[in-house]
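Example complex used in Figure S2.
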Amino acid sequence: MVKPADYLTVTALTQYLKAKFERDPYLDRVYLTGEISNFRLRPNAHQYFSLKDRQAKISAIMFKSAFEKIKFTPEEGMKVLVVGRISLYEATGNYQVYIERMEPDGLGALYQAYEQLKAKLSTEGLFDTSKQQLVRFPKRIAVITSPSGAVIRDIITTTQRRYPIAQLILFPAAVQGDGAADMLVDRLKQVNQQGDFDTIIIGRGGGSIEDLWPFNEERVARAIVASQIPIISSVGHETDTTIADLVADVRAATPTAAAELATPVLTDEVLKLQQQRLRLYQAFSRTLALNKKQLSHLENSYVLKQPQRLYDGYLQNVDQLKRRLVLAQQQRLQVSRQNGQLLQQRLQAQSPTSTLQQAQKAVNETKHRLNRAVEALVRDRRLRASQAMGALDLVSPLKVLGRGFAYVTGDDEHVLRQTADFTIDQPIKLHVHDGLINAHVTAIHKGDE
Amino acid sequence: MAEKKLTFEENLTQLEAIVNELETGDVPLEKAMTAFQKGVKLSQTLEETLSKAEKTMAKVMADNGEEVPLDAETQA
Amino acid sequence: MAEKKLTFEENLTQLEAIVNELETGDVPLEKAMTAFQKGVKLSQTLEETLSKAEKTMAKVMADNGEEVPLDAETQA
Amino acid sequence: MAEKKLTFEENLTQLEAIVNELETGDVPLEKAMTAFQKGVKLSQTLEETLSKAEKTMAKVMADNGEEVPLDAETQA
Amino acid sequence: MAEKKLTFEENLTQLEAIVNELETGDVPLEKAMTAFQKGVKLSQTLEETLSKAEKTMAKVMADNGEEVPLDAETQA
Amino acid sequence: MAEKKLTFEENLTQLEAIVNELETGDVPLEKAMTAFQKGVKLSQTLEETLSKAEKTMAKVMADNGEEVPLDAETQA
Amino acid sequence: MAEKKLTFEENLTQLEAIVNELETGDVPLEKAMTAFQKGVKLSQTLEETLSKAEKTMAKVMADNGEEVPLDAETQA
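Predicted assembly (905 residues):
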């Protein structure tokens, strides 16, 4: 008996089965062909659908990253070639194909060729060659396309609406089928040889990849690159990208867009020119106004309007200095005069006049005293002398003579007192009170005798 | 003058340059004056060029190398 | 004189320098007088230049015809 | 004389110096007299310079034409 | 004489010295006389110097014209 | 003589000394006479000196002229 | 003689001495005579001296001018 523990879980079995798928080298890369079934486009998401043929059906998943790379829109019933791997989704137990690449079945060879050429040209750097600038105001535009159909009509209509002064020249060309590529190349060369065109529009309407194929030819691509005239390409619908579109200077989604790219709108341009003139006026007016304002700001400065303010202060200074000068000098003179007058007064007070008067008085007094002193002195002396002389007179021995006496002297005035003093014949003198008498001794008589 | 030899686009470019320069406001007065005069002249000339140009009919390059009018139907 | 060769802006800058210098008040009298005279002359020159420019503009506008000058003057 | 080459400010400074010196009262009389006379001369020179400046200015303004002088006189 | 070369202040100082000496009263007559004479002479010299200075000032003011002298005298 | 070199005061002092001596009365007559004569001579000298001084003063005042002396006398 | 060298006062004193001697009465005539004679002589001398002095005084005073001599004579 099998024990319950020996039973496999669903998960274990599923994991086992998944491992089998994963490890199988054939299922890792499968090239599968079939019709698309149950497709409903889920924008910007992973896509889930089925692939089937008459007998079988397989679930398919295409992740967002892979789906974004495909160049066509899948449709119900469309036969496709896919590359992918087979694996198992554990949650549902379904096995499915994980599609990496998908392309419509039957076009595969062209597609391959397209991819190969694109890779080659890309390696050459043709897509990176600098694009020529479109002429903004083309005079002549060459349109290389089919003379019939909507393309040329759209271009003509759009150009006439926008820029009717441009000359459109249609260079009719087959745009599909054998020989179309050669014709396109010839036309491109022709336009370039003619040389008097500003812009080339090359293109055709939408169609299958086979229809568009001439525009994927290398010759055409090289002719476009070689063109000296800027080229706008508009091939097929917006989703179709041809080599021509890649190498053209500008790609337009539609012929109308191509014409719009090729031409400006004439009325707009005229308006723009007028606007520019207006802007010129305005800009220059502003410049003038600004300069005027700056100038008038400067001119309004008081130093230009009231320049006297530049020296007003000076006027006052000078005036004040003048006043101070005069005042200082006057005070100076006044002080000097006062000093001088004061000294003069003091000098006058010291005038020697009074000194002189005093001196005069002193001299007079002294002189007076001198006189008086001398007089007194002389008087005194006279008094004394008079007294002495008076006294002498009183005691004068001559007074005895007055009474009749005389005394005798010899020649020598010596008084002769006694007889013995006399000699005979001796001359003698008799002194009387009033004179002198000369005599001779005639006899001598001694008294006792 | 040299101006006459310039293309419409070159003239237009000059005009645009002049307008831009003047609009910066940094242009010295005399230079601005000259630029202004030149700019006005250019804009007049260019406008005349555009408005005097004749309308054209689309043509087709015939096999013989001649440009012939397209049939009216195509142009309509 | 050399002045005629100076641009409007150079003259304006000179005038500005003179006005600024005078406004500081530190300029010696004689120098201030000379500066003042030069300043007045400069402002005359500048006004002439401006009025010439305005006339030129008016003339250009008149030649051109339209409403533009009115606009411009309103903004001036 | 050398005085004519001196600037207004130099003369003013000299006059100030003289006045200040005189105001100290320490200047000997004869020297004070000389200084005073020089001071008077200086003040005359200064006044002449100022009145010349005034005339120059008036002339400059008159030459300048209309509005400025009127303005100036009204404000003066 | 040498006196003429002396300044007003020197003369004033001399006069003061003389007056001071005289005021002490100790001066001998002859010396006092001499001193007094010299003093009188000095005061004449001073007077002359002052009156010359005053005349000069009056003249300067008269030449100068205006109210200043009057002012000054009122203030003096 | 040596006398001439003596000052007024010295002479006066001498004179006074003579007078004083004479006034004592003790002076011998002859000496007194001599002294007297000398005294007289001295007093003459003194008077001469004085009269010379007075003349000088008169002259000084006359020379000094009008106003100063008047001023001075009024104030003296 | 020695007398001449004597002063007036010495002479006077001698005279007085003679007078005194004589007044005693004890002097022999002869001596008295001599003394007296001497006295007379002395008094002559004195008189001379005095009168010379008086003349001198009178003359001096007369020369000098004034009232003094009259006074003196009145008093003499």
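Residues 11 and 21 of chain D are 15 Å apart (CA to CA). Chain D has a mean pLDDT of 79.
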